[in-house]
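Tokens in:
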């Protein structure tokens, strides 16, 4: 099983959209079993799949992190026969406060997602565990990075994103001391458009031999925000759109030889 954290310290770069479309293409086109984990207190991933999710009644990731659920099955929501979701609630913000508090009665399980990963592997319950992280090193983001085998870093071409990416790469290098499984962190260029500043920025980024970058880029199209309003992955909403074609090509790149042998 591959555990992938989708992370960038900067918001608005397409983390949740990437998680949604990665999961959709893996399940529909490649027949993979996927568990999505919503690690963001904004709950965008959860609201996309379960608009009526009741945070006051239903268990979610913060329930597990606070030790109020005994196993991941208590919070797992089956969405299709191959796709399931560990939902989030805004209680993750309380988890962050508790983690900073340090009081014994406010214990936060930072190994929570490691335990879920290991249980999914032991139960042979999934081929991919995909974790949609918030911007910034929150308690849930750190838990996700401790559990991850690899990190996908969605990145738009602008100066703010470049600086955020540099900081994130430094933090990930430090995280490897605590997570020996973390083998790869690679940039996925999103919201790509045909403009000189973007092509020059891409060239500059790719000329830096220290940064691992996917060959495939995701082009900007209005179909992407439309698909989130519709509540559908881009391949279902607009299969012929540039972004749909790009995400499918990127997933084949991510699968590598595995996709070539399908």
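Residues out:
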């Amino acid at each position: 099983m591959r555990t992938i954290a989708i992370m960038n310290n900067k918001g608005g770069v397409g983390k949740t959209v990437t998680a949604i479309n990665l999961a959709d293409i893996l399940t529909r086109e490649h027949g993979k079993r996927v568990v999505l984990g919503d690690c963001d207190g904004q709950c965008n991933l959860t609201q996309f799949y379960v608009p009526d999710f009741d945070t006051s009644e239903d268990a979610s990731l913060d329930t597990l992190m606070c030790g109020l659920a005994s196993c991941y099955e208590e919070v797992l929501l089956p969405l299709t026969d191959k796709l399931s979701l560990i939902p989030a609630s805004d209680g993750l913000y309380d988890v962050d406060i508790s983690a900073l508090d340090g009081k014994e009665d406010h214990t936060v399980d930072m190994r929570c997602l490691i335990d879920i990963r290991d249980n999914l592997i032991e139960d042979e319950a999934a081929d991919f565990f995909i974790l949609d992280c918030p911007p910034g090193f929150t308690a849930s983001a750190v838990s996700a990075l401790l559990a991850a085998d690899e990190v996908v870093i969605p990145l738009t071409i602008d100066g703010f994103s470049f600086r955020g990416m540099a900081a994130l790469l430094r933090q990930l290098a430090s995280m490897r001391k605590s997570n020996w499984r973390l083998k790869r962190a690679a940039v996925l260029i999103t919201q790509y458009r045909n403009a000189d500043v973007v092509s020059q920025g891409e060239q500059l980024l790719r000329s830096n031999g220290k940064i691992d970058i996917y060959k495939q880029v995701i082009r900007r199209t209005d179909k992407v925000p439309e698909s989130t309003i519709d509540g559908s992955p881009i391949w279902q909403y607009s299969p012929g759109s540039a972004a749909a074609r790009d995400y499918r090509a990127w997933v084949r790149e991510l699968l590598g030889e595995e996709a070539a042998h399908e």
